[in-house]
Write a structure and sequence with these properties.
Blueprint lengths: L5 H6 L31 E5 L3 H12 L3 E5 L3 H9 L6 H11 L4 E4 L10 E4 L4 E2 L5 E2 L1 H13 L5 E4 L7 H12 L9 E4 L18 E5 L2 H12 L5 E4 L2 H32 L3 H8 L23 H9 L7 H27 L8 E5 L14 H11 L3 E5 L5 E3 L5 E5 L11 E4 L17 E3 L10 E2 L2
Parallel strand pairs: 1-2, 1-4, 2-3, 4-7, 7-8, 9-10, 11-12, 11-15, 12-14, 15-16, 16-17
Antiparallel strand pairs: 5-6, 8-9, 13-14
Length: 459
Amino acid sequence: MPDVRIEEAMRSGMRVRRFRTVGPDDPIPQDAGTVAAYPADTSVAVVGLSDNGLATALAFHRAGLRVAGVDFSRERLAQISSGRVSLPQQGRQHLREALVDPDFGLSAELRAITSTDVVVICVPTALDDHMLPDLAPLANACADVVRLAREGQLIILTSTTYAGTTTDLLVRPLESLGFTIGVDVNVAFSPERLGSVSDQSADQMPPRIVGGASPACLARAQRVLGGVCSQVHSVSTTEAAEMTRLLENTFRAVNIALVNEFSSACHEIGVEPMEVIDAAATNPGGFTRFTPGPGVGGHSLPYDPYHLTWQMRRYRRRMPVVESAMNAIADRPAQVVSRIQTLLSESGVATRSARVLVVGVAYKPNVGDTRESSAIEIVSRLMSMGVDVEVADCRVNVLPLPEGGVVGVQPLGTVDVTSYDVVLVHTLHDDEDLAPLSHARVLLDATYQLDAQPQRVTL
């Protein structure tokens, strides 16, 4: 099987060593709920260092493994090497510690994976302009991993995609090269659950889901993941694991669409939506708490349910609940803009002479990440109407616009809030000083968290 000498991997810029391979015949823990940690001499390569991939690499490093982080983008590697990444504060500290550790390396050369026992694929998946899954980056990465695979490796796919991807992109291509799955090489799928908990220790993390391409594959993946997360929940197939991730994010999307719609109904009736949500949350057996907002962003929610609806077209089946929810989510930024227009009209301010301040443009609190943030569409729509829009965020430097170009971002404390006709609070960070908001003429609170602020209105 294909192999590359350690010296070649080291010349690519990664510091690695060869370690004993953990074989399929190693003892299997009796209790799959709490899985024993992997042998200390296991090494892992993480392919794809987006936020989730980086969090995965750091989690393995903190657990004591030798880690090689691989990304084809040298710009992304430079960002990681300089610490310019979207991680919580503790995550950034972990990164600083890893970067000075010879057992943690970064490389733009995929050949580095041939020296490791485990390969974890974390390549992001996205949609094309027609809202259809764009699987080309993932398919290319999997093809490269298959081409360089060697006997004894465990390959774990984590990227969110349609059910059957692991079989289509890893299992069958490996078999076509002569590998026997579960004997020569092990393959598993374990959906991403690390990005949002990168600051937590193994015993604090939610259970990690895993499905193997064979019983031997599952057993080995359980052992490896058990060193990162204290609870590993196994399912019968890789397809079941893939569907689990789709259900999680589809559930979130549907409920976010529902609570946004409900909050608008509360506005019409004259009821504070958060009061109702707080009251309903006292019944944990019959209610799952979701909070309304200006829209969704990031690498998961805007995309993942479309993988499911796309796949169902093959079976001539529709998913009207999911489709309706995704349409509602897509419409939410436009609803925010419409509400701003109404507030301007009520204040007697013409749209083309209006000034609007958007506070917080990251896609979620306490990160500097603007990927798919609903603030991008909101700002773009307002600017296209002639509104003078400015942006404040203590964690973001610039806001990219869909048509190209960027909007400069400044700290809220440097802004004269009284000079704006409407202040839209889009995202709140824990370390943001909110005192200036008390001087806003009209405060549109899309976070539903500022009920004590004067002049506050909601969507």
